[in-house]
Design brief:
With about 425 residues, the chain is α/β, with parallel strands linked by helices. It has 15 helices and 13 strands. A hairpin with a 7-residue loop joins β1 and β2. α6 crosses α11 and α7 packs antiparallel against α11.
Length: about 425
């Protein structure tokens, strides 16, 4: 058993510590576009997508959408307008689902239909919209840049707050004509909280549900995240010229062969492959071992090295600020002041309906960090803030646990229905 645990630990370290861009599958087509600066833009290919690979096969209607951010990134979105039994689209409350770091919209579709949040919401009468952040598999398009250009990756999670989230919010609002409910997990909660703290998006928001919320991160217990931050790994890689952080890039020659090897190992009865995630997320309680095959088929996803640096800054300092250029002149150039501005959690409106759920075993959304967030929200209207605590849950349980439907999603939907 110790040998099996060692194998999964080593694989996990390799899985999440790979970096640098590797070879790319043909998910996006080169299309020359007149963009005023003589560059070749990347546009999404229309021959594949999340609808076709993950939704249609389960008997649900699905629409592929794209939205372009103000800074030129072309984001993929999927819409599940009705449940599997059908119904009338167009008059259902819209819900926007936003994934976390190293994931994409498939986060919400990894479990069987009766357990995956996207399908559960659709079957409960909601108009479901799935977001995919810039740089992920289905959101690599840009009006003037291609992903092989370092300039494409010149962003941190600040840009997700400033551009991606407003673009997806506005698009769903315009398409449906309604205010929307929001569900974020992990990084998807951080960018929402940051936006809300600056008064953004509130005019289009009905309520928000935050799963394994990330805000303060100074007490993160994940050995992988903590050691990476304390060792300045992301900063070193960035200094060496790597602008993209791609966990799959370590295996740039043949990722499919690596996935096959991992699946073969995971089929060994003596190996619990859910431990692949433990070194990063904490000890998840309720993952079925079969979920790992689905996970490995689709995740993890790349992100910008600057996002990794930004998160490392937060872990080391215990603060929630914009990206620090570690140079007073550079900060002043970007922010008009020598230090990066803070995202003030106490500025989130007290009457904003929030559903917040966190776990006792979560190594990324640590209990003590969540308590700091809750202290910042202590003046919120009592009938607007619902807090759920799961002693046995860790970070991945909120999107991959086989009991999440009854333990988290049903209470979440009950909360939405009150708003």
């Amino acid at each position: 058993m110790e040998v099996a645990n060692s194998v999964t630990c080593i694989i996990a370290l390799i899985l999440f510590c790979g970096s640098a861009a590797g070879s790319r599958t043909k998910l996006f087509s080169f299309k020359a576009q007149e963009n005023g600066i003589g560059m070749v833009a990347w546009s999404p290919s229309t021959d594949c997508g999340i609808c076709k690979s993950m939704v249609d096969t389960n008997g649900y209607d699905c629409e592929e959408h794209t939205v372009t951010t103000q800074d030129g990134y072309i984001l993929s979105m999927q819409r599940i307008p009705v449940g599997r039994s059908g119904g009338t689209p167009g008059n259902r409350p819209p819900v926007l689902l936003q994934h976390g770091l190293f994931m994409d919209g498939i986060t919400w579709l990894l479990l069987p239909p009766e357990q995956s949040l996207a399908f559960v919401l659709a079957d409960n009468g909601y108009d479901v919209w799935i977001a995919n952040s810039r740089g992920t598999k289905y959101s690599k398009g840009h009006t003037s840049l291609c992903p092989d250009d370092p300039a494409y990756w010149n962003w941190s999670w600040d840009e997700l707050v400033a551009y991606d989230l407003p673009a997806t919010f506005q698009y769903v609002h315009d398409q449906t004509g309604q205010k929307l409910h929001y569900v974020g997990q992990s990084l998807g909660t951080l960018i929402a909280l940051a936006a809300f703290s600056r008064g953004q998006l509130l005019n289009m928001l009905r309520s928000a549900a935050l799963l394994s919320p990330i805000a303060y991160t100074g007490q993160v217990t994940s050995p992988l995240a903590r050691n990476a931050a304390d060792s300045f790994i992301a900063e070193t890689l960035y200094w060496l010229g790597l602008s993209e952080f791609d966990p799959r890039g370590f295996f740039l020659m043949n990722w499919k062969a690596v996935v096959k090897l991992l699946k073969d190992i995971c089929r060994d009865p003596g190996v619990d492959c859910t431990n692949l995630l433990t070194v990063f997320t904490g000890q998840n309680c309720c993952l079925n071992s079969s979920i790992m095959e689905n996970f490995l088929d689709h995740e993890p996803q790349p992100s910008a090295m600057k996002t990794m640096i930004h998160l490392a800054q937060m872990i080391r300092r215990g603060t929630i600020t914009m990206y620090d250029y570690n140079d007073a002149d550079e900060n002043t150039k970007h922010y008009g002041q020598p230090t990066p501005p803070a995202y003030n959690m106490t500025s989130i409106p007290n009457d904003l309906p929030l559903f917040l759920t966190y776990g006792g075993k979560d190594a990324l959304s640590d209990v003590n960090d969540v308590k700091l967030l809750l202290d910042s929200l202590k003046d919120n209207d009592r009938d607007k803030l619902v807090v759920q605590y799961r002693e046995d849950y860790a970070h991945a349980d909120y999107v991959m646990a086989e009991n999440a439907k009854q333990d988290v999603y049903d209470p979440l939907i009950a909360f939405f229905r009150l708003q």
